[in-house]
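Troubleshooting log. The previous structure file for this entry was overwritten by mistake, so regenerating from the original sequence record. Sequence copied from the archived sheet and checked twice against the printout by T.R.
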Amino acid sequence: MSGSVKSYAAVDLGASSGRVMVGRVGPDSLELTEAHRFVNRPVRLPEGLRWDILSLYGGVLDGLKAAGQVDSVGIDSWAVDYGLLDADGRLLGNPVHYRDSRTEGVAEKVWATVPAPELYAATGLQYAPFNTLYQLVADRLTGAERLLLIPDLLTYWLTGEQGTELTNASTTQLIDPRTRGWSYGIAQRLGIDLELFAPLRQPGDAAGLLRPEVLEETGLAGPVPVTAVGSHDTASAVAAVPASGERFAYICTGTWSLAGLELDAPVLTEESRAANFTNELGLDGTVRYLRNIMGLWLLQECVRAWGDPDLGELLREAAEAPALRSVVDASDPVFLPPGRMPERIAETCRASGQPVPVSPGEITRCILDSLALAHRRAVEEAQRLADHPVDVVHVVGGGTRNALLCQLTADACGLPVVAGPTEAAALGNVLVQARAHGLVGDLAGGRELLTRTQPLTRYEPRGDPGRWREAQARLVRI
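Regenerated output below.
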């Protein structure tokens, strides 16, 4: 390994914001700074909800300019969504947002051809109405010659080269998690042409060089390589879980909570499908066995509805509110669309015969208790379904800033919670780039470097675990 320090630009795009972070990595150092942050604001057009992909690309270019000279660039983002290109490589309209309504009722049509148990046994992916497979069945692909997932689309605009990074491809429901290649049989039966996809890339593969026009616009001196990272942001975040050994669970927190285990083989049982666990691909042959939970989206939507009150004060009020008074199923699809979130939470509590939270503090406490309970269920069920016991839960991502949620998660799970790093996706992005360029060793080596260099907070479980069992039983009855 080289003894020098190198700089890597991590483009990390979330559902509500994007940022370009700069990681400076040496054999014994890892520092992350923010170069540029920008809004990711979807646009509702007459034809539906769309991503403003040109604004995002402009934010990426501005971020690379602010980052200064770097040794490589990597891009990660949310999963499942894509852009369509014509035969000349031109974009055919703004990419559709996964919360768009066009996939309503599509899953049932798919299951009529490939029954849900068979689809799960072949692809290992949990049911979500916005999975790429359902989007493709719903989409009119007229004139489309190429499909690029969001990070691959931006990489194409930066480099002129096309590819499909594997960790993100595994969220399409068109990958076989056992072979880590395309599930041609499933695609053929559903009339999906896999030739639409560019060749698969692995995390760490070279993805091209910044085009001369990009160098000119950003002020960077070439050549600057772009490196394929774990381009699904959860894959990058899990790569940055500062764990040692194998007996750990993780919860990647943000708009979504992704809670589960890192395994060396998928779990494709019917019981696993019924529990709605997914098998997505990670680094070094690993499988991210996890459940999608609605996450802090519930709180974000409430805060928006309340006119953006002070979050610190809101959490103080929540901490003083009665614990476990009312809980909701944080994975209930009723909470998926935007709008009227406080009212929908109140209506759900009322319909289930529970006390109805009224004040913002009470509603916030209901949300955080419900999320902690959902974390508990996911961690417990993942261990049982995969026969993989754990001793600690690692919480990474934006939710690490929410000390109340971290403590409630420790209480609910009855396990220590180690919170941090907050910028897990960007750090995982940086580590894959650094590894591709010889500065970091294997996955365990990168995690050991994170443990030594990043601030972490430990929360021990407290209180009566029976209260959480009772709340979970109450939710099951609902």
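The chain has a mean pLDDT of 96. Archived copy saved in two places this time.
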